[in-house]
Amino acid sequence: MKRNEWMAIIVTSFMMLAVCLSASAKVNKTVERGMTKQEVIAILGQPKLTSFDAYGDKWEYYKMNVLTGESKRIVVGFDLNGRVVAYETKFWDDNTNSEIGSCNQRPTLPPSGVGPDGPIYYGYCLDDASFSRLYNKVKNANFDDNKFDLIEVASLGCYYSCAQTARMMRLFTFGDKQLRVLRMMAPHIVDPQNATDIYNVLTFDSEKSKAGEIIRNSRQ
């Protein structure tokens, strides 16, 4: 085969790979508060069931992970302006056609005025199943540096609760390493009003004081 033909095949392969990665990125994008119906459709597709009441519309989806075999029921709630105000994911048992249990994916927001000084940016924390997979990968990593690398990469696009952050911190024995975990995860904590969970991990008052400073600075 001629050199030019080989080059054409290589270039085409890279182009196909780029298209696949782009499509994968779109599929993996998550629904967020304030999105329009068109944006939700772009992520999840057309809903299987729809309903409405005096407060807005509700869309239901049923998704299966072809790799794990897990089925999920996803419910998206819209306000009267067609913007996302609620999102709930639950595992679904196809055999009994019923819910297995909630992923507890959407934490309750704190009352007005509660939380550290500065603006608070709320996202949606990882569901229990996804966090457990991340936690186990970090736990099973051979070296601390590898554990930190995994946490750092995951934190590029994930949000956590204080309880999840505390659980990850407990994988490390010493306070300096626990605080290092907190520095990576703090900008993605969705419920800073529950920071007591984090303080309880730390042994010394000086470490707890440093943790409070890290959390406050992460909200600015």
The chain-level structural class is: alpha+beta
Number of domains: 2
Strand order in space, largest sheet: 1-2-3-4-5
Arithmetic mean of pLDDT: 75
Note the overall shape: elongated
What percent strand? 15-25%
Q: Report the helical percentage.
A: 40-55%
> What gap, in angstroms, lies between the N and C termini?
59 Å
Q: What's the helix-strand series?
A: HHEEEEEHHHHHH
The number of helices is 8
Residue stretches low in confidence (pLDDT < 50, at least 5 long) are 8-28, 100-123
Instruction: Work out the radius of gyration.
Output: 21 Å
The largest sheet, given as strand count, sense and whether it forms a barrel, is: 5 strands, antiparallel
Give a brief rundown of this model.
This protein has 220 residues and is an alpha+beta fold.
